[in-house]
Amino acid sequence: MKSDIEIAHETRLLPITEVAGKLGVSPEDLELYGPYKAKFTESFLRRIENLPDGKLILVTAISPTPAGEGKTTTTVGLGQALSKLGKRAIVALREPSLGPVFGVKGGAAGGGYSQVLPMEDINLHFTGDLHAVTAANNLLCALIDNHIHQGNELGIDPRRILFQRVTDTNDRALRNIVIGLGGKTDGVPREDHFSITVASEVMAILCLATSISDLKRRLGEMLVAYDKDGGPILARQLGAVGAMAALLRDALKPNLVQTTENTPALIHGGPFANIAHGCNSIRATKTALKLGEYVVTEAGFGADLGAEKFFDIKCRAAGLAPSAAVLVATVRALKYNGGQPKEELKNENLDALTRGICNLEAHIENLQKFGLPVVVAINRFDSDTEAELDFVRRVCAAKGAEAAISEVYSRGGEGGLELARAVLRACEKPSNFKPLYELDLQLTEKIKTLATQIYGADGVEYEPAAKASIAAIEALGERYAKLPICMAKTQYSLSDDPALLGRPHGFKLHVRDVRLSAGAGFIVVYTGSILTMPGLPKSPAAYNIDVDDDGNITGLF
């Protein structure tokens, strides 16, 4: 089979105005970024607000493994398959971060015959949204340090500055730094930290804001530091909101592109699901719902992370009610969870599959707790045997979830027709969607609910720093304590220990720290050894990326 980039280069892209025309959108309602990318105008977004909504389908997955699951590819392929069945379908995805693109994973635009295009643009600078988030975030950091340097009228305690600088590359050397060194004119020396851009609260705000005015309100609400008496310092007190919003003005508008089969795709926002809330923007999802009959979106990593945050944070904030959830699994990944070595995954092993299927069962049960019909997409590999596939089907049926084979990587939309028909049936079933927990629960009770009901923990252990942070948040007032939880946790395990595969039992969730993201509207809980600034591997994907004399980029896949 041809490589992803070969398939992408051979695809005949339609002018983006023609793709928009499929949705009834005129060229005047677009801001063009070349022939194949566009943003919607603010006037158009306001004009469609009162149109009826289509049906929303979430694609999530089992716990990630080195064997691969194919969640983005399945999302794109399902959208294409629905289009082949005559449905007006739209795909809604996140924007890739440069960190993974040049780090471990390489490109993140789907694969095979189920990609979003133009792939090189989407994986690199795209329309500049992530750069705008970086600039806005770091402007606020500069204003904080300048305020202290210029006399510190607000009495900011340099030891209690919460807001951190960001960059959209994996750079472990920036995790812990000292700034302000030099002379008197170089600022006040203090410890600082870098996170990756997609973990920034500004990124979360971009994805959760519904308008420019809502964006500005949320930016102003960000808790950036405490003063020397322990009082909160908000971003609006530093006069930062207007300039930050100006940098984010265009980034707030959703991006329109297309798939390898010219199905419309909205790609907007890029938070990671292990350290942030992991969903594309509310604006993109709502725009897609106004324009399409069926909207296929995804949430990052496994269902214990991205899907839970999609339901408990994004849907709650936006008033969304999804119709069905698709859970992507592979026989290979399930055998890996069952202890089969990676180099042997092509061999049939029903014993390993039997041991590892518990991970799939846990994710099905978790999704059903939100009141949704669940369809399991078995992303088929050539090495899968009929005995293995039949075993997975039987387990899914016993759990009340229909299973469907997906071959969208090798066959595009045609390979997703079985899955698409199963999803259409699921969308006609009763949906009793509800979040997992009530917001008026105590902060520790919400954490415990996630730990026990989603991860399967026996309880929660808190480090002293986490206890102190919880007390500080609760002291700020009831409205902050009633925010939802955004758990920062390893994606590789249902627990906070990446080595515990399958469905761990007999463990406690270890909470290291807790941080208020008041502008985003959630509380981040840091567990285990999770980091907000990844590092590069020994052989990063950057080594394989190049550009020839004609400007053609290679090595992204």
Describe what this molecule looks like in 3D.
The chain is of the alpha/beta class and 557 residues long. Helices cover 36% and strands 20% of the residues. Strands 1, 2, 3, 4, 5, 6, 14, 15, 16, 17, 18 and 19 form a 12-stranded mixed β-sheet that branches. The two termini are 14 Å apart. The model has no long low-confidence stretch (mean pLDDT 96).
List the helices and strands and how they pair.
Elements: H1 4-10, H2 16-21, E1 30-32, E2 38-40, H3 42-47, E3 55-61, H4 71-84, E4 89-93, H5 98-102, E5 110-111, E6 114-117, H6 119-123, H7 129-149, E7 156-161, E8 165-167, E9 177-179, E10 190-192, E11 194-196, H8 201-208, H9 212-221, E12 223-227, E13 232-234, H10 241-248, E14 255-259, E15 264-267, H11 282-291, E16 294-298, H12 303-318, E17 324-329, H13 331-337, H14 350-368, E18 374-379, H15 386-398, E19 402-406, H16 408-411, H17 417-427, H18 443-454, E20 459-462, H19 464-475, H20 478-481, E21 485-488, E22 508-517, E23 522-527, E24 546-547, E25 553-554
Parallel strand pairs: 3-16, 3-17, 4-15, 4-16, 8-11, 17-18, 18-19, 20-22, 21-23
Antiparallel strand pairs: 1-2, 2-14, 5-6, 6-14, 7-12, 9-10, 12-13, 14-15, 22-23, 24-25
Helix pairs in contact: 4-17, 7-8, 7-10, 9-10, 13-14, 14-15
